[in-house]
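Take our chain:
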Amino acid sequence: MQDQAFTDDFRTQFDLLMRLRRDVRRFRTDAIDEAVLTRCLDAFQLAPSVGLSEPWRVIRVKSADARAAALKNFQTANVAALRGYSGEKAQLYSRLKLTGMQEAPVQLAVFCDDATDKGQGLGAGTMPEMRRYSVVSAITLFWLSLRAQGLGLGWVSILDPDKMAQDLRVPLDWRLIGYFCVGWPEEPSETPELERVGWEIRDGCLPIETR
């Protein structure tokens, strides 16, 4: 395959895609066409992975019991997280919408199989965490693929990962990388919601040092 020469228009659109990639918390409840979702999930098959280990394991959380357990997991962790703040920051935190788990039509739990034999351990001997980094890379491609279809993704990190693994009855060697809500965003935005509500400011600075 020859190198693809991308046009200026393509590069402009790709830059826009990255700018419009948001961590979505506010979803419409409209269903997602299964063919569209499958096409986006194909991004995992295109993702890089250390030693071609492809250590990602994706569970679609559909049953009412499983979703209720995941939501309870978040709520418990969120109460504990609130205790870590005080004053105005605690008041602001209590008003943040940190998950779309009650609205998003599709929910996924993505794990890393730390014990996979695939890849024969190449590249993971000295840095076994590379398998988990590989899963994150695949998630990033999935995220962009969703956005290109007009869909949004919300990464729920306020969770007890061990409890999530237990509730979903996954193998002991699987480590939760993220719980994801997928759906149609209420509205697109180029500005992160946490910046809009005054939680933090994105400075856009990339510090690069020379040694």
User: Anything to note?
Assistant: The mean pLDDT is 95. The helical segments are 8-19, 34-41, 43-46, 64-82, 87-95, 130-148, 161-167, 193-196. The domain at 24-196 is CATH 3.40.109.10 (NADH Oxidase).
